[in-house]
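Because discrete structure vocabularies remain unfamiliar, we reproduce here a specimen of the format, pairing a chain with its fold in token form:
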Amino acid sequence: MIRVEIYGKPDCPLCEEARAVADELQRELPFDLVEVDVTLDAAVERVYREKVPVVFVDGRRAAEGRVPAARELRKRIERALRLAEGSEKGETTPIPPRTLRAVKTAFAAVAFAALPAVFGARAWDVWVARPRLAEEAFDIARVDAPAPDFRHQTADGQTFSLSAHRGKVLFVNFWATWCPPCRDELPSMLALGREIEARHPGRFKMVAISVDDGWEVVREFFGGTPPPGLTVTLDTDQLTTRAWYCVARGACPETYKFPESYIVDKTGRLVAYVVGPRNWSDPTARRIIERLIDG
């Protein structure tokens, strides 16, 4: 059963209209309808208070700040139903690894789908809605593409390559010593790396790729050697930087700004990236990374 979610708040006429449109369609189409009150969480309310109603169809945003037309919402629901129907048709061929991961994800989604019936809307809000909204508030972009491989020299003269670390989840940060936002986010980023490595030894790696002109300024910045737990490499010609920025977006940006951070899963696929600095002590980042480590 697919799910239509309406994020709203009390005394919101547009939210009520969106619910009425969904109610009408529910008489004809099979789907679960869930309402989420964004005022139940202060952080979520700050992000979404002025955007409601926000309508999701099976996890995909269908409308924001407006009432979706019945015809538009019907098309999205019918498409989601067709996709769900196709995924339920059995196949006799072996399931490839990537497909198997998708099946596991779908199974988890089905398990979560049962939460409202078992625990009620409050459980759905706590276990599903809030984490999703927290991730959106953190402004992390999802992507699914092979992470471009590279071979860089590290601060201690060794060679680091991405492909040599398959089986680990990687956090890759592009930065420069002359970049104030890069310096500002570094303490919380290092703390995140230490915490995850302590909880999952040998299964996580944090890499900082500097676009400075040479090692002298980098070593001076760190007072000699980089802190433990951080692998620092140098990309003076910015070829790796361009490759990652372009792959993440599906096209090359007009300008390259720093910092920018990427998350790579255990199979070497780029799964998410963040533009600009963040407070990495936010539990959202740790939750995303640990989910990949445990998955």
